[in-house]
Design a protein that fits this description.
alpha/beta; globular; single chain; seven-stranded mixed beta sheet; two-stranded antiparallel ribbon
Amino acid sequence: MQIKPKDWYNENYFYPNKRTYVDQFGVSREYPGPSLDWHGMTIVAGFIKEIFPDVETIYDIGCSAGSFVSRSRDIGFDTIGCDISTFAIQNCLDGAKGKVRIVDITKAQPSAQLSKQHDMVVALDLLEHIYMKDLDLALRYITESVKPGGFVFFCIATVRADNEQYVHPDENTVVPPDRTWQLVSGHVNNQYLGWWINKIESCGIKTDYEKMMKFQLMRVNNMEMKDVESWGVRNVYVGRK
């Protein structure tokens, strides 16, 4: 198994299709994959609207089929998005049509129309999919897309224990059998939140712990979000340029 980003996130990656893989015990398993749409994005967009009252324009980098793009536009944001997955963009939600495009942020820089134009960049379950060798270029694309004084809002799949910490080197390296369970999701850069904070701050972003806490307080008081651990304190990052 090799994780080649332009090919990996195809129709077999997303729910309800299932990608099969063989685990370290030689057992064939199925990975259900993420849905192209999730109603929770409406809740997340609502939290952002309350915490960041001055934010109007949002660039969703790694937008998949535009779930956040569509649902945030429904509540008044001017949101656009991009993703590396041709399948996701070609099968985007109706509310995202004409607002999302295919971009490999490890190979591109924002156009003049996009550079420094956005009040906020969101990257939801994106950074852990970026190879370490490409991460600086990806973060440069992200930070260049934000206005001075604007915000970044990330949800990152982070590790909870040392045995989960793993960095896969590149798309040409075969995934070790004992890591197939982890990398079938495309998570090639598995780090603690503290590592991510240091990396993001090295790009000139200042961590906004107050807004991170506000988001978590809103989340735990929401019946639909309070038990969604993937949006917990280990995963959500807010910073200001």
